[in-house]
Amino acid sequence: MPALMRLAVVLFATGLATAALAASADGFKAAYAKAEAAENQAGALKNQWTTTEAELKAAKKAADAGNFNDAIKHAQQAEALANASIAQAKEQATAWKNAVVR
Amino acid sequence: MRRAVSLALALFCLAAPPASAADTVNPKADFKAFRDYFTKRFPNVPLNDFVNGPYSMDAELRKQWVEIDAFPPYQFALDKGKQMFDTPFPNGKTYGDCFPNKGIGIRQNYPFFDAKSGEVITLDVALNQCRQANGEEPFDYTKDDMAALTAYMAYTSRGKLFDIKIPNDRRALAAYQKGEEYFYTRRGQLNFSCASCHVQSPGDHIRTEVLAPALGIVAALPIYRSEWGGMGTTSRRLITCNSQVRGVPLKPEDELYRDVEYYLSYMSNGLPISGPGARP
């Protein structure tokens, strides 16, 4: 009985772990896809930031190491940076004219 | 319904920015304003000295330069460039055959607007076109072979005055304006434009460097930099400038890099070629 119980506990724990793992891996994939889409949009505007690229790389690296919490954080940071670079490009599309030497 | 349409129209007209001088492309007016800005801001810098970049801004640096130039660090690139330039391709033709005046003393006419392709052609691009027309692989735009060839061609053009033409062609004007836009557009996480550094802050120190003024800024290319331990082409310089503000650089000789070189070269019209340059 104790042996059975131990087995049950182990099985239960593994089940939890894989569930958490699956959620994290999926969560990472979703977060990374969003970040990548934003960065591609910045690329179309020829206005990517090196810091966005660095966060994307860090996200991949953390995910490869199975560290999905960190990976998701990096992906979210990359998305925020990419969105800021898109906003910058849109604002500058007209604002540059105010800076021209006249 | 009709009222709604006219209301929408009225709103649209209100929202549309007024067509002002700022919206029309006028290279001649830009040129005058640009030159006036720098000559008024730096009244003690002789006009032809702007082509010496940071040295025109800083007396201390200038002293170092005189010493550097006694044994120019770009000499090896000049020698290599001349040798490459004079060596025929396997088909017997040379680089000189691709260019007006056999390629000697013509740097001041680049970049030019090419009506056939509808694009701006820089000297670096023209050199690779020449190679490909003669069955050779193009050179990397950021590396030493390209730097050596352009160094030699600049050297044979020293003292010749920039003479950049913007033909009366919608596409040429569009390329010019794209270059102007690229120059004044803030980018990178640091939110700097080329103008933030080279118009707002020439003479200021960034780490160990002194910022060059935008007037005449392309005249000394390509450039030897001690910091690089070697020569840098135009592409290498622009890539470095983009990276400094945490912007992902464009591809070497990207259309926008060519356009911004076109814009800056036109702004330098009448100033002498000083390349190749040497920087600390």
**Which protein chains are joined by the largest interface, and how many residues does each one contribute?**
A-B, 23 and 26 residues
Topology as H/E string of chain B? HHHHEEHHHHEEEEHHE
| Percent in helix of chain A | over 70%
Mean pLDDT of chain B: 92
- Compute the number of helices of chain B: 10
Major β-sheet annotation of chain A: none
Largest sheet of chain B: 3 strands, mixed
Q: What is the count of β-strands of chain A?
A: 0
Low-confidence stretches of chain B: 1-22
Strand content of chain B: 5-15%
Q: What coarse outline of chain A follows from CA principal-axis ratios?
A: elongated
**At CATH's second level, what is the architecture of chain B?**
Orthogonal Bundle
**What kind of assembly state do the chains in view correspond to?**
heterodimer
CATH class of chain B: Mainly Alpha
Mean pLDDT of chain A: 85
Percentage of residues in helical conformation of chain B: 40-55%
Across the major sheet of chain B, the strand order is 6-5-7
Q: Would you list the SSEs of chain A in sequence order as H and E?
A: HHH
State the separation between the terminal residues of chain B, measured CA to CA. Answer: 70 Å
Any overview of this molecule?
The complex is a heterodimer of chains A (102) and B (280). Chain A has 102 residues and is mainly α. Helices cover 84% and strands 0% of the residues of chain A. Chain A has helices at 2-44, 50-64, 68-95. The longest helix of chain A has 43 residues, at 2-44. Chain A is elongated and about 55 Å long. In chain B, helix 4 (75-86) crosses helix 6 and helix 7 packs across helix 10. Chain B is mainly α. In chain B, a hairpin with a 2-residue loop joins strand 3 (205-206) and strand 4. The A-B interface holds A 43, 46-53, 81, 84-85, 88-89, 92, 94-97, 99-102 and B 17, 22-23, 30, 33-34, 37, 180-181, 184-189, 191, 193, 195, 199, 243, 246-248, 250, 254, 256.
Note the main attributes of this structure.
heterodimer; A: 102 residues; mainly alpha; 3 helices; B: 280 residues; Cytochrome Bc1 Complex, Chain D, domain 2; 7 strands; 43% helix; disordered N terminus
